[in-house]
Design goal:
Oligomer: single chain
Number of strands: 0
Radius of gyration: 11 Å
């Protein structure tokens, strides 16, 4: 797994600030978590990453 370290750190920080996204991520299987983390490499800006985290709970539907 080769993801941008800055994106991973920012992702973790954003998860800590968003209880719904954090709860969703915590409920994911290891395979689902890996799929989410692999998408971090596609994020080209901090605002895009923020929107991705905010939308995480909607992935369950």
């Amino acid at each position: 797994m080769d993801i941008d370290t800055n994106a991973a750190v920012t992702f973790g920080e954003l998860l800590q600030k968003d209880p719904r996204a954090s709860a969703f991520y915590d409920s994911c299987t290891p395979e689902q978590r890996q799929a989410i983390l692999l998408q971090l490499g596609q994020m080209t800006s901090q605002s895009q990453l923020r929107a991705f985290v905010e939308d995480l709970p909607s992935f369950a539907t």
